[in-house]
# Entry
Amino acid sequence: MKNKKMAAVVKDHMDDPAGLAQRRIKTKLMNAIINYIDDKELTQSAAAEIMLVQRTRVNDVCNGRIDSMTIDALVAMTARLGLDPLETAA
# Structure
């Protein structure tokens, strides 16, 4: 299913390399957050406390609402989980 989602992202931004790069970075950061939450078996509320955000923001990440997230917010959330955002997005 990830490949289908990525294919849709690529198709949406074929004429905008900057937009494609931003969506790819957001996708990688969001996936890292989701994987962390799953691996640690955290509730969205517990994850929100760690990342110092509202639970609704965690819900946005977990439900793939990529357009509602900024790269800055995702970098901060990832870092607060103890993950290296640069490695995660690479």
Remarks:
- The mean pLDDT is 88.
